[in-house]
Sequence to fold (249 residues):
Amino acid sequence: MKDDLAGQATLVTGAGRGIGAAIAREVARQGSDVALVDLGSYDEAAVVAAELRALGRRTVAIRADVSDFVAAEGAVQEAVGALGRLDGLVCNAGITRDGVSWKLTEAAWDAVLDVNLKGCFAFCRAAAPVFRAQKRGRIVTIASINGMRGKFGQSNYAASKAGVIGLTKALARELGPSGVNVNCVAPGFIRTEMTAKLPAEVVQRAVEESALGRLGETDEVAAVVSFLLSDRARYVTGEIIKVDGGQYI
Ligand code: NAP
Fold:
């Protein structure tokens, strides 16, 4: 369906590449203006922003570290200032620092929890006053099926994504009375730079696990996120939707 998000404004974190860039493109295709937040891939986010501006959308690229509360508040304010409103938030930025738990460093633990869980909370916290004041808002968090089933070598990542799922449910309860829906998309193995660095046998195992017999594409995650941001999902909240080609079953 087209124009589901016409006249709206959406902030996407980690929007410079991968799933975040696909979400930015899809919500723009559905009519939304977009604020694209990124840190190391800020330049790429600015390129995507220019591409979407050429389609007639208002866009702004913002450099921010999602795990910094002050930066998150600044980014939300900058988005509202540039786009004139904020209707949707997609907490997508995430990293991996894999290793078996008995060798995992404190730095690898902290980095993943900081970006994936604290970063998600920082943006939800920053956007909550805007959404509560207007009595409407949509938040979509991005977890992972590995936060639901665990994964060898990913104790930090799985813990962070399980945390995102708990956070989503708590926020759905807190913000629901203010007309704010909070849902989570849990992707399986999606072809992006994050997964490109994994060994071939890990990729092959994901293909074999998938009921559909293939990896996922970024636009297949973006389509579900866009649906959750739209009014078609207005009675859905606190929900975790797997987009994994049946890898989890
Ligand atoms: P990706 O290609 O590595 O993109 C992640 C984006 O987040 C990058 O642009 C990255 O920029 C940005 N980012 C990282 N740390 C940040 C920070 N502190 N502040 C702001 N931006 C930051 O990853 P992806 O595969 O698209 O994954 C997107 C989300 O989906 C993540 O939450 C990931 O955990 C989740 N996910 C992915 C898969 C998959 O198979 N790909 C599966 C399940 C869940 P820089 O690193 O350049 O700063």
Remarks:
- The chain has one domain: 9-243.
- The chain has a mean pLDDT of 97.
